[in-house]
Amino acid sequence: MAQAPVPLKDTKLLDVKLGQLPTWLAMRDFTPGGVVGALRRGYDRYYNKYINVKKGGLGGISMLLASYVVVSYIWSYSHLKHDRHRKYH
User: Could you tell me where this protein is found in the cell (predicted)?
Assistant: First the structure.
């Protein structure tokens, strides 16, 4: 017995075919409330998967720290780029 097809609006991004991507993106909610809701759902998924576990480790915290380091480097890259060729003598 075949399952009923999932509506495109309820399809996950990884399950969307390349030809359906523009239609799928047009169905997303890009209002400030929709973006905040998506960020909230992403944070909740991350928290429940890596932080709120019975037997936790350093994996979730180290990923958060690594992402902070990468974002900080990206934010300060333009300043670092100008200092790279400066002579200190």
Answer: Mitochondrion inner membrane
